[in-house]
Amino acid sequence: MSSQTPEQRMHPRWILKSSVSVFDEHSKEYLGLLVDCSEQGVMISTYDEIKPGTSLLLSMVDIPPNINGRRTGNCHAEVIWCDRITPSLYGTGCRISNVSDMLDTMMKSYQHPAG
To answer: Tens digits of per-residue pLDDT, 59-85?
Structure first.
C-alpha cells in the first residue's frame, strides 16, 4: 500500500504469532504466508504479483501450539491491492467472504491487537 493511501480498514487487524500457509484451493498452488487478518480481510505475502480484482478460493493451513495436527480453513477472497514490499515479495490485501467455520475458529485464535 502506498504511504499516501489513507487507512481504510473498518475492523482491527491481528498480527500473527505463528505461520499460516496460504494456498489456492483450486490449483493447490502455494501462494504465500498470512501476514495479518481482520474480520473482513487478510494480507498475504506472496512471491508473485496478484492483480487487484482477482477472485480466489483460499485454503489456509496452520499448526497451532498445543494442538495435535494442523487446521485448514477456507474462504473466498477478492484482491484489493498488491504492492511490492521487497525485491522478491509482494504484500497482497484481500477482502474475504464465505469464511468456513474452521477458518473462523482459526482467525479468532489470532485475535490480539496489532502493534
So the answer is: 999 977 776 788 999 999 999 999 999
Q: What is the CATH number of the domain that holds 54?
A: 2.40.10.220
Its pTM stands at: 0.81
Cβ atoms 20, 44 nearer than 8 A: no
In this structure, is residue 105 part of a structural domain? Answer: yes
Burial zone of 99 (CB within 10 Å; 0-12 exposed, 13-18 middle, 19+ buried): buried
For residue 97, list its beta bridge partners.
76
Q: What's the CA gap between 89 and 45, in Å, rounded?
A: 6
Radius of gyration of the chain (CA): 13
DSSP secondary structure of 82-97: EEEEETTEEEEEEEEE
Domain range for 89 is 14-109
